[in-house]
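Database export, one record per block. Field names are fixed; values are copied verbatim from the stored entry.
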Amino acid sequence: MMACGHTVRLYSYGEVTNIPNGVEFRDAETILPRSKLLRHKKSGSYSLGSNIFRYELIQKEETIWLDADVYCLKPLKGVGPIVLGWESDSVINGAVLGLPSDHIMLQKLKKYYDARVFLPPWWSLRRKINNILRSFIGIDKKAERVGWGVLGPKAITYFAKSTKITEFAHDPEVFYPIPLDNIGEIFDPNENPERYVSDRTITVHLWNEMIKHRKQELPAQGSYMHRLCLEQGLDLPDIQEMINL
């Protein structure tokens, strides 16, 4: 991101070491209290909290949110005040997200995740009523216990459609060119995931959840991941040193 000329701010609830030069460190508590950082009960993932954090951040600062597993190929210029992208024909992802701070979609998202009783708008009426009734005796389903994505892509897609801003969402090749199911190709020197990249591509989403089991291994020489590292001035010995930290 910095190589593309962007100011990068890193938010954390605790001390972070080895921050790259030029990255601005910020206290995450100034955006979202740690007590509201939801964690998915089944997987232990902080994805739920991350989703709420990004919505709160965009409401409080004029910025574009990028997940840490998003690689910038070129500057995010000319994408407009509404920054959205389809990851597929039916899902809008939030790994790259920007909206005016007072946008109605952010207001609807906040009302949704701040509600006393968790009620995804795409649930059936029967399911909503059931969760409301369960809330009277304290056994209603919370966001932490519902399926994956209820505060992320599912919510973003739903509210983008309900606020009629899907026309601003870019095609997958712009922010999410490599399909989720094919992300393993970035480690294989015999594959060419660059075939998904076009002149319109601005970022590449590396789908952390799909590759996290491989992040402690050296990328094969000649693989797409190796080439991305070389672009940042990192060769295999440098990467090995980082893995060993």
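Remark 1: The chain is about 30% helix and 10% strand.
Remark 2: The longest strand covers residues 92-98.
End of record.
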